[in-house]
Write a structure and sequence with these properties.
heterodimer; A: mainly beta; Ubiquitin-like (UB roll); 5-stranded mixed β-sheet; 26% strand; B: alpha/beta; FAD/NAD(P)-binding domain; Arc Repressor Mutant, subunit A; 6-stranded mixed β-sheet; 5-stranded parallel β-sheet; 14 helices; 36% helix
């Protein structure tokens, strides 16, 4: 899985570590969760409608300004986060799939 | 400090200037903003630990950006500032605001909404692929995070932001595969007299085009998008367009797409603004008087009312605040008001020129192939939407939404509603206006059901 985003400037920042689906990745302090994940991989989640035809598969966000809600990810505790507007924090445990037990938190 | 309760929603250029006017009148407004730092999208600030200065971040607009940021900082002791707070409803004279899992209903005597704008995007076959971003989003990635949205980026759409964002990418060292503009070049020439209302901005636009050409970036005007190619697993792999009778393909792993921006008018809608159809931009807009009065103690400023750009937003934000203050019985500076109204008129002429030079490609949208997805949120195709008209006989946008779910997904119609209306109108062979307007619904953005009220 290659990185989708490419860092161009502002790379002289302290590193922070988090896990995405249990895999440890490194990001930079000040990254949004979206940038943290997409400089380490190429998607944030899978569409819930992937079984439709045409299938629309994996998603990596769209608007980056909190309007489209395409960048939802989840914490290990089941809290839903909008990756484009959530600052990354060291030690985060992020899931790209909604933990089943917390379905009642769906808005 | 007065007793009048003034709420300002938004802390972009319009909201900041509105807050300044209210504070100047001796009141202490509540300023609610969804972002962590003031500036709005256009003057959006990176996190505190980033290094680039205003010149690097905002280019020719650096002085304006700095003024907005510094003036807002100076206002902080005089306002009740609530960042990272979402206004999700307006009802019965209260603004419903959510922050960190709690929500509150806040009463007001005057509500000044400066909610800004979001990208107007056209659904292109394949646009749901990972790696396809809104043009504004592509610019935010660079401005607020120092990143490009991909390793080889294709810019597709129309309007000044298309060229500005592409040129900013080139300058920052990103690889730009192509700039593909759906508007033919001659429209720009035709609109030149109106664009000359803002000669500085017209000059900047021409300079950007020169920068792109010098960098060797292919710039094509008058293209017809055919498809964004990609894979459901790995995302975007390229874009195909028709140009001067030939099919052209550009390889890339990211697409930045946008056709100007459109008002984020959901809050105005819930606050019972009246909407009217604007034939020039083919959209429904909240109605205000020249100063920004929208009725019901509601005042609108900035691009959230009508897209006239960031400079104009400073003017219309202040005007809206002055209207609110006047209606509360406070004295406002009549000379200042007259000057602001004249400024606004000039920006409006320029905006008309932009709409003429870089039109929304409604014929392309109406004709998108059946298999193309209109609703990204729930993967609803144009065929499904057309069936809601042709088979289920939906006559207008809200009915078609109920049948097809286009406009019902998590973006709540922000990125499909305007395209959906074009497709419905074409399927029914009626004017766009006759398809009606998608009504706003609370909450205007998804909120968790676990939200607790903290004002009871």
């Amino acid at each position: 899985m290659s990185a989708r985003f490419r860092r161009l400037v502002e790379t002289d920042r302290p590193q922070v570590s988090l896990t995405v689906d249990g895999v440890s990745v490194t990001a930079l302090a000040g990254d949004t969760l979206m940038v943290a994940m997409l400089t380490n991989g190429d998607a944030l989640r899978s569409s819930e409608f992937s079984d439709l035809e045409p299938t629309d598969g994996r998603r990596a966000g769209f608007c980056l300004m909190g309007a489209c809600q395409d960048c939802w990810v989840w914490t290990a505790q089941g809290e839903r986060l909008r990756a484009c507007s959530t600052p990354v924090q060291g030690g985060m445990e992020i899931s790209t799939h909604q933990p089943e037990a917390t379905w009642a938190t769906i808005a | 400090m007065g007793d009048h309760r003034v709420i300002i929603v938004g802390a972009g250029p319009a909201g900041v200037r509105a807050a300044q006017a209210v504070v100047r009148a001796g009141l202490r407004p509540i300023v609610i903003d969804e972002a962590a730092r003031a500036g709005g999208q256009i003057y959006r600030r990176p996190p505190e630990n980033f290094q680039r200065d205003h010149e690097a971040l905002y280019g020719t607009e650096a002085a304006r950006a700095r003024a907005i940021h510094e003036d807002f900082a100076a206002l902080l002791p005089h306002i009740d500032y609530r960042p990272e707070t979402l206004v999700w409803n307006v009802a019965e004279g209260h603004v419903w605001a959510a922050h960190e899992g709690e929500t509150q209903a806040i009463p007001y005597d005057a509500l000044i909404v400066c909610s800004g704008a979001s990208d107007r995007v056209a659904p292109i076959k394949g646009w749901q692929a990972a790696g396809c971003y809104s043009l504004g989003g592509a610019q935010i990635a660079l401005k607020a995070q120092g990143c490009a949205i991909g390793h080889r980026v294709i810019f597709l759409g129309s309007g000044p932001l298309l060229y500005l964002a592409a040129a900013q990418y080139v300058k920052a060292g990103a690889e730009v595969a192509a700039v593909l503009d759906t508007s033919p070049f001659w429209l720009r020439v035709k609109a030149a007299p109106k664009l000359a209302a803002m000669p500085g901005l017209l000059w900047q636009g021409m300079k950007l085009l020169g920068d792109l050409k010098r960098a060797g970036v292919p710039v094509l005007t008058g293209v017809t998008p055919v498809e964004i190619e990609g894979d459901t697993q790995s995302g975007v792999s390229g874009v195909t367009v028709r140009h001067k009778g030939a099919v052209k393909h550009f390889a890339g792993d990211a697409v930045a797409m946008g056709w100007h921006v459109k008002p984020e008018a959901q809050i105005a809608d819930l606050a019972r603004a009246t909407f009217a159809f604007d034939p020039a931009t083919r959209q429904w807009l909240p109605q205000t008087d020249a100063d920004g009065r929208a009725g019901n103690a509601l005042y609108l400023g900035g691009d959230g009312a009508r897209v006239l750009g960031a400079r104009s937003a400073e003017v219309t934000g202040e005007l809206a605040a002055m209207a609110a203050l006047a209606d509360l019985g406070l004295t406002v500076d009549a000379d200042r008001r007259r000057w602001l109204l004249a400024e606004k008129a000039n920006y409006a002429t320029f905006a008309k020129g932009l709409a003429q030079a870089f039109p929304w490609p409604h014929e392309l949208v109406a004709a998108i192939p059946d298999e193309a997805i209109v609703c990204r949120c729930e993967a609803v195709t144009a065929a499904n939407l057309r069936a809601s008209v042709n088979t289920a006989h939906a006559q207008e946008a809200n009915r078609a939404k109920a049948f097809s779910r286009v406009g019902m997904g998590r973006c709540q119609g922000r990125y499909c509603g305007h395209a959906s209306a074009e497709i419905i109108a074409a399927a029914r062979s009626v004017s766009l206006e006759k398809t009606g307007r998608l009504r706003g619904q609370a909450p205007i953005k998804p909120i968790p059901v676990s939200l607790k009220r903290n004002d009871l």
